[in-house]
Fold these 3 entries.
Entry 1:
Amino acid sequence: MDGQIIISHCGGKSAEVDDSNERALIDDQFKDDNPVRCMLNNWQYKQPIVMIMGSKCPTSPTKMPHRYQVLDWFMITHAWTEPDPFSGHVRFKYRFEKVGLQESSWWAPQGMPGKNEEYLPAVAIEERECATCNKKSPRIYEEGFLCIHSTCQQFWKLDGQSAAHNLHYTQQFLRARHPVPPNYVVPSPLAPSIDGLLLDRNAELGNAHRDFWKGIVCPACGNCCARTSWKGWVCTCGYSREVGFHVTYTASQLREPHRDRYVGAPIPAINNRYNIPVKVETNGATTIVRYDLGPAVGTVIHVQNSDELNKKLGMDELLQRYQDPELPFKRGQVTTMCGTSYTRNFALNCGAAYHYVVDQDTVKMEDAPVVVQNVLSMLNEQVGKLCPGHRDFNEVLSLAYLEDMRMNYHTDDEVGLGPVVASLSLGAPARMGFRFRAGWKQNKLCHFPGLDVDDVKSGIPQFSVTLNHGDLLIMDGAGIQRYWEHSLTRVEGLFRIAATGRYIDPDTHEAASRPFGPTPAQRMAITSPKSETTVPTGEAQSTYMEDFFTHLHSIPKKEKSRRKSAVPTASATS
Ligand SMILES: O=C(O)CCC(=O)C(=O)O
Ligand SMILES: [Fe+2]
């Protein structure tokens, strides 16, 4: 790797060799493998590609300042196959060349190609035909011409013998620079302009559009900056940009335009295989639907009110007050195997501390925004009527969903939680799915005689409900969290609030809460100074590409059919 050329392999299927830090392929890579196909498409159709480098990259020419950094736009000039030095499996390799050769590369040290250096005149990479397969190969290594076609008997052989693995790239291969083909366009700047984003977007969307909650590149320091604050983007360098809401959404604006608000008894969306008993009770203004999941599990209760009753109960006002830009909503931090990330939705926890996979602050109920205090009273009153013996909630987790936000399947089964969990929905409609909790085999014994374990593994929802503005969804029974999972698969609109009440026993819950991940490291600036270099033009592109494509290492037929039949099992266990 230098400031303009990167030679690398990718395409997956590698694993650590024993306990060493070395990785090796555990299977051949094939042209039909998705990651390989993507790369070959990029090469064939000349699609520019952004290179991102991790701080642990062993061939980096300088010390990388961040865990991950964006290098630049590159194009693939050559692709070929080689045996993996450790396992002998076939692996695809690629030569990437920076598109903007005239720009100085921030990651290159002084004196390296790409750094303030007038570049050498372009040199061509020689190509030769293999006497056995009659296909062309580029000259990549000093040690001699190697046939790069893995289906050829002479693949990776020098004078009839398997070539060593510690070969040296030719100077031509390293020094060649290719003209940027006509019509070759970089699809976007590496750092999209935040002003363009904010000004061009339709203000009627009220800034709940996805563009307003995804990350930006900080215009002050170049750092990638997630939107975690309700008010807008706040970068660790001190830069901040408020977003606010241009529009205060009303319930009728957020309603699904193609479906009328509830009229009459709802039709529950049920995969009716297990005949979940459903009871519907209505008095005109309120409809209560009860999904009976069995005596050892519990009941899901869905309460829907007419528009008039919702108004009377103050639901529209609650929705409006939840759009106050001063509310301390935040996107919570989640630590995953791949690093630190954020929940999709904004959260505000009030009352007892509530720890789940997310690291979040809690506001005491006496200091909580009035809207949250009102919701708590309303939840306690309504749930008290429907679930006899209900212990008053002492916590409300308010979640704000902007466009395209959702919540994946999970259970609210943290230690110290009471058996009743109830959430009030405000704003845009959303679909909540319920499925069997994977891996909980006792399901079989517990209820639904004849439960097919494949239905547990499949992850398919057994029933789902549409939560409209003003609806109350009560999960009554600890067994629901034990044997079932729920998710918010789809929010049909720009803005939705879910305010969920729970009883949390502070002592047992605190004692059992999970450790949380580290805060994000301080980030440093990346700048990319410009310098004058010459860009080669007019040099021919490699011509062996066609040969390579017609002679590619593809999955054998037998293997292909085996993979196809394996698909359902693989997805079922995921
Ligand atoms: O958005 C919702 O209605 C569901 C929220 C939820 O499941 C939770 O807070 O645990
Ligand atoms: Fe939940």
Entry 2:
Amino acid sequence: MDIEEGGITVSVPEARDGASEGTGGGVFFNPTQELNRDVTVATLRAYREREPRAASYLDAMAASGVRGVRAAAEGYDITCADVDADAVDLAAANLDANGLDGEAVHRDVNALLYDEGPFDVVDLDPYGTPIPFADAAFANGRNLICVTATDTAPLCGAHLQSGIRKYGAVPRNTDYHPEMGLRTLVSALVRTAARYDKAARPILSHVSRHYARTYLELESGARAADDCLEALGHVDGCEDCLWRSPTRGRIADPVDACPECGSDRVLTAGPIWLGPVADPDFARAVRREVTDDMGEAKRARKLLGTVAREIDTPTHYDQHRLYKQWGEPAIGMDEFVERLRAAGHEASRAHYRGTAVKSTASIPEMREAVLGTDAD
Ligand SMILES: C[S@@+](CC[C@H](N)C(=O)[O-])C[C@H]1O[C@@H](n2cnc3c(N)ncnc32)[C@H](O)[C@@H]1O
């Protein structure tokens, strides 16, 4: 069937249960990833202003080619790659049908990157973890690496051993799992880039539905890579009172007991990325590039606006859980954030959950700020 997305028309297989599967069910297409693709296109537009030399775009896992076709329509010099021959034929036909130039190649993207790289922008959009493709992408990417990861259970510590194996980090299953997942992913990608003497800094990231997406800008040089690694660290967190303590530095020095409530239920996660996951100015620039021909324009603008305003903390608190702990009825989120700010604390909402609040205040400070009474 034909679908319209962001001003282009592409032929895609019939979707079953939201997404068509690559194996046995034809070429993969997931209509619910339109938000991801709309944000990608807006990012490619904004990135051109930031780095005018960026011209080539590798849609490394093209499937129907919808992402690459949309990038071609933006003027990028695109290559669509896939190991599925049907996908390559479909991507080529979709480029053709839209009158756009570009290549569709039947290649394993790891081999392609080493044989044909470098590419200015490399977009990894695999099934599950991107890690099998990360070395080739960072070794052969020049400016921007865009990465989707859908294996949220390993990333956020719900499947601990799998997370440790794939990401070379200890992710913990905390109640701030969107941050945990995203920062475990970025940690692994930053360490991968460092192997090639490159700094990889996230300039935009979001956690939406069941995936994390991050855009990492590259800077070549051993010193830049070293500086970037300084933003890795670990977080100690108490499962009982929700106390959390992020510490930068590569060597974890975990605590045995919570300094706030004395509980020994303290979990240490790391190395995770403790630096910024987005550049607020770039997020605003991307937001300005969202256009009304995008099917998810409304959600994309809301998401990017919240990302731009989000404060830079590696954890968040769930407002309902805080009020439960305090034994008080919850107030509205905007009012909650306002009261924290009025008391002099940095505070914001988070883009991934309506009840998530980010703040530099400790829990006793938050309680004081919003209830006007200190913790017992
Ligand atoms: C999730 S789909 C990509 C969806 C697509 N980017 C979109 O926006 O609709 C993953 C694709 O990766 C392809 N793939 C898996 N391993 C690959 C490899 N080593 N090299 C190139 N493509 C690969 C699969 O055949 C599948 O088409």
Entry 3:
Amino acid sequence: MPDTPAIEVQHLTKRYATGHTAVSDLSLTIARGETVALLGPNGAGKSTTVEVLEGFRSRTSGDVRVLGTDPARATRAHKARVGIVLQTSAEAPNVTVAEQLTHFGTFYPRSRSTEELLTATGLEAQRNTRISRLSGGQRRRVDVALGVIGYPEVLFLDEPTTGFDPEARRQFWDLVNGIKREGTTILLTTHYLDEAAHLADRAAVIANGELRALAPIDELGGAEARTPRVRWRDDDGLRHEERTTDPQHLVRSTVTPMHDLEVIRPSLEDVYLEMVGADA
Ligand SMILES: Nc1ncnc2c1ncn2[C@@H]1O[C@H](COP(=O)(O)OP(=O)(O)OP(=O)(O)O)[C@@H](O)[C@H]1O
């Protein structure tokens, strides 16, 4: 059924045994081939949501489908269509990179060759290196190689570049963009807004277990949130602030002196922080 959305979440609620509601009435639909970034402060409910979608966690109520299947009732055939890159890696430390990739390939009905994966992840030079000897960034690449080994139609990436240096992060983005171009649907959890801006078609902002926004990154918060602000002090030292799409006009048409004049264009971070408010 190619018309089925890749991911469909309707009114998902998860209440833990502690009584804490981690996710509350969350609904979102992700089309096939789309990359969506899940953003939100610590404790917002991102991991809980993703774990329900991965089939690792039960839900209290609501309907969830991944490739048309309820992950709570997933068969082996369904699991083979989904790639998961968790925050913590599960590789065997004493085998080499090539051995690990070849071994995992046997778990899938159709798998990428070890050579293709080594090239795609830039790990050719480490093919005979034991996993325990890899740097954190190299290990993360192995994680991703294992996540995409079975040609997944949906890929879950949970904070994939935490701890990366800026260059490694850029290389990793190239890798993910390549996977994206193959038509893979990606749900990416990240705390880096620049990562979301580079990789995602849309971002879902979650705070306090609730979906606050789901929109293309450059439309998050709506036009109002992106309207520039003009700030100044008058002769008496009083502060003024106005939002306007035409700061030049405002400045020209103000007849009284404007001191400490500033024009502030809200950044993605400003828009995000305003959206998550006191939860950040
Ligand atoms: N097993 C659990 N039992 C009880 N409460 C939990 C459990 N796991 C998570 N929580 C709580 O549910 C809320 C949401 O947690 P979750 O891990 O989904 O947030 P998150 O958005 O992924 O946060 P982070 O960005 O820190 O990873 C938090 O208040 C957390 O303390």
